[in-house]
Design brief:
Helix content is 61%, strand content 1%. It has 16 helices and two strands. The chain starts with 18 loop residues before the first helix and ends in a 5-residue tail after the last helix. Keywords: Membrane, Transmembrane, Transmembrane helix. Residues 182-199 have a biased composition (Low complexity).
């Protein structure tokens, strides 16, 4: 029996507007409308922290590019082969991988924030410390390990582009010597390799927080008590649930700073200089948006006053070079007017022996000129009150609700 020949569905003729073709067209239109509404609602909520964390422009670009590719795939059958193969190849080669890469960059931003919060929870100075790049295999490998997730994506993308060019140039030269049949075979093989899609990223839906009426635990007095006696649990919760640990860490460090220096009845010139250095370290690592990894959000007028208090200090995040000679001006113990997160001065006791040597006596006048006359241990009080109110209105109610859900007996 002779085999039956069925007509080809994609023959380059008239568009296929049969039942299957209409279903594909309607699906593309409906999905486009639904996606447009969702993106509009996302734009309306652009001020939400979860949206700002991922980056609205990155989300829109990734979703748009992937949607263009999906629509073209859905319209392949209705167009009946009228879509040029060359255009299909370039759309498949550009829109799909670039859309997935941008989507990965969006996820890398979230991973970067998570790693930053986890690092700040352990040691908030760790993120401020930087190492100078050593152009050796070991130094480059250590620099790669120190990069955050987003930076690794950027560096990996650039390296991948360079390597792909270095690989494609010899392949192009070699393909010139092949026959037309082998060129078509290699082209089809290469096209098939480009159609492989990356594995889908599973996303966990965020757990909904139960809305309850504020109990007495949610009062300002309860927050102040928690800051004074049990702020570590609040830091742990904000770092893992809200990615806003910088606010509670700032409250803890200012609390410790005031306790440390307000206990002294009299403050010598050297101790006043040390107090100013410790306050500068808090300012540069948690407040200043140009130097802090994750700065707190305070009013500009408060930040401006703090900036005036520490304008004479220089911030150096890099590991200082140790010198064999203690009198070397590059030695970290001899550098004046420099704040370095590698030298953790916050753990030193305030009542340390402050005997002034001959060299330090000669620099007493410079110390007095460096530290402003209005500088006291309460230099961070306005910023402390601002952040405390911010935590009270945003973080504290959700934290109390979560504690009530986890410990129902405490209600």
């Amino acid at each position: 029996m002779a085999p039956l020949r069925l007509p080809r569905s994609l023959d380059g003729g008239a568009p296929n507007f049969d039942a299957a073709g209409i279903i594909y067209v309607v699906a593309a239109i409906l999905y486009t409308l639904v996606l447009a509404v969702e993106l509009f609602l996302l734009y309306r909520q652009r001020s939400a922290f979860c949206v700002r964390l991922r980056g609205l422009d990155i989300v829109f670009t990734s979703v748009s590019m992937l949607h263009v590719y999906l629509v073209l795939v859905l319209l392949v059958y209705p167009l009946n082969g009228q879509w040029p193969c060359a255009a299909e190849f370039w759309v498949m080669s550009i829109f799909l991988p670039l859309g997935m890469a941008i989507f990965q960059a969006c996820n890398a931003r979230v991973l970067k924030a998570y790693e930053s919060q986890r690092r700040m929870k352990t040691d908030f100075l760790a993120g401020a410390r930087k190492k100078r790049l050593a152009w050796t295999p070991k130094g480059l490998f250590e620099a790669w390990l120190d990069l955050d997730a987003a930076a690794k994506v950027h560096v990996g993308t650039i390296v991948g582009l360079v390597i792909s060019v270095l690989i494609l140039i010899p392949l192009r030269d070699a393909s010139k010597d092949r026959t037309t049949q082998r060129r078509s075979l290699s082209s089809s093989t290469y096209t098939d390799s480009l159609t492989s899609t990356p594995s889908n990223i599973s996303e966990k839906s965020p757990a909904s927080i139960l809305s309850r009426e504020l109990k007495p635990k949610a009062s300002m007095q309860a927050l102040e008590f928690s800051i004074e006696h049990n702020i570590e649990s609040l830091i742990e919760w904000t770092a893992s649930r809200e990615f806003t640990a910088e606010n509670t860490i700032f409250l803890r460090e200012v609390r410790n700073f005031k306790k440390k220096w307000s206990s002294l009845r009299t403050v010598t010139t050297v101790q006043r200089r040390r107090m100013h250095t410790e306050a500068s370290l808090i300012f540069f690592t948690l407040v200043n948006p140009f130097t802090a990894e994750t700065p707190i959000n305070i009013e500009y007028k408060i930040f401006k006053k703090l900036q005036e208090q520490f304008e004479g200090m220089e911030y150096d995040p890099y590991m200082p070079k140790r010198s064999a000679s203690p009198t070397d001006p590059m030695s970290p113990t001899e550098r004046e007017y420099v704040v370095c997160p590698w030298e953790n001065t916050l753990d030193r006791p305030a009542s340390i022996d402050s005997n002034i040597s001959g060299a330090s006596v000669s620099s007493t006048s410079s110390i007095k000129s460096l530290v402003p006359s209005q500088f006291t241990e309460g230099v961070f009080d306005p910023a402390f009150e601002s952040i405390k109110y911010l935590v009270f209105t945003n973080t504290w109610p959700r934290y109390v609700d979560a504690e009530m859900v986890n410990n129902p007996r405490s209600q």
